[in-house]
Amino acid sequence: RATDLVKEVQFLQNISKQEGFIPYKGYQIVPKEDSTGFDVYLLADYKRSLERHAGIRPFTHLDALNLGLDICSAFSACRRSGCMFVNLKPSNIYVTPNGEYKIGDLGFIPLNNLKYATMPENYISMYTAPEIKDPFASLNETIDVYTLGAVLYQIYNGGELPDLSSAELAAPQYADEEMAAIILKTCSLTPEDRWSDPAQMGQMLVSYMQ
Fold first, then answer.
1. In angstroms, how far is the first alpha carbon of the chain from the final one?
2. Which of 13, 41, 56, 158 is spaced 20 to 30 Å from 193 by Cα?
3. What is the pTM of this model?
4. What is the pLDDT of residue 42?
5. For 82-135, what is each residue's pLDDT tens digit?
């Protein structure tokens, strides 16, 4: 619905004043002339997405760690503001000129609605936790962290993302044992086996760096 979309855009504009998110320059929602519904126009500056960045130069181990830390911080800021971001993928992670990784898209669900909400179809991707791809499935507190785990898996697997719903998921090809354990925990098929708080995952990445 248009009103829900406006709320999401406004939330993005507000949270971008903290950390981890990039706002739109402007937006406009216009009723369709020949049918019911609305056309939505979102105005943004050109930014280099992770998808394009990875195609320009090789991703280093430090790049991947910094990405993980930056996105964990963004997820934590989002939760402190009362929402969860559920739409993470390489096409909406952007690399700033000073090398930070930020999110620049919609995909917010209020935390107090989580148990009663279902995943919007336009937010479902190959990075979405498998248990919520069913349009009638309830959401849970691990699904943001899962998407980050899937992105990191792809990076540490040479750009390839296999079917993560396999019960015998192999470790990413280029991750060492400790990093592989972090990623595989994040991508666990069982939500209870994942981190339910992005700050916990961020702390594990910090410990790994040390």
1. 46
2. 158
3. 0.92
4. 78
5. 999 999 999 999 998 888 999 999 999 999 989 888 898 989 999 999 999 887
